[in-house]
Amino acid sequence: MDTTDPLAANIPAPTAARPLLGLTILAVEDSRFACEAMRLLCLRSGARIRRANCMRSARRHFRVYRPTIVVVDLGLPDGNGTDLIAELNSAMPRVEGILAISGDGHLKDAALAAGADAFLEKPIASLGLFQETILGMLPMERRPKGLRQIDEMAIAPDRLAYRDDMAHIADVLDDHHSEQTLDYVAQFLGGVARLANDTALAEAAGALAAKRASGETAASETARIAGLIQHRLAEKVAI
């Protein structure tokens, strides 16, 4: 296996303005809206980004090249992100950093136990927090030299990507309402809705998650989410 990014003929040195210059980040994230936020964070930090929307796609990436950092969402459509983290942690050679992300902060301990170097709770909108977390996983020689001002800029992803996420969840709910499906819907929407400042949908996702955690039926919560999703799909998005 080629352990380098084929696009990186020469690795440029990071700078104060672009502290992640020279890094390649693979985002294993099924939300297009969250991945658009990650793309903006990487773009403004100097890092390259690639995306895998599921564990299967991520494993295909690893057969071709080894990124510097892997960002793994814990709620993926084809499995638990902690399983992928455990694989990455035991691989030789190991990637330089594994960052676990989730809209559920209670999953932090499980992610770190699986081998993640750091954990961030979604939504991740702060450029400074993202940069400091990534840099904290790198050896000193891979970090920019000298003093650096922390950038407190908040990023704003394209709303069209949010609509794509709504269409994705509408399709998931149309297919079937198994217990695993509802857990996935609640986790997916929890982080995405907060990133979009969609309070009503975030609260509905939280209510669904609470019902699932208590073992109660969640028919009314599921119906409410389905209605909110359809309402958002009906809205026109300015281009």
TrEMBL record:
- Domain Response regulatory, chain residue ranges per copy: 24-137
Q: Name one Pfam family in it.
A: Response_reg
What's in the keyword line of the UniProt record? Phosphoprotein
Which InterPro entries does the protein's record reference?
Answer: Bact_response_regulator, CheY-like_superfamily, Sig_transdc_resp-reg_receiver
Residues with the modification 4-aspartylphosphate, per the entry, are D73
Q: What is this protein called?
A: Response regulator
| PROSITE patterns according to UniProt | RESPONSE_REGULATORY (PS50110)
> Does this entry carry the keyword Iron?
no
Annotated CDD domains: REC (cd00156)
Q: Which organism is it from?
A: Sulfitobacter sediminis
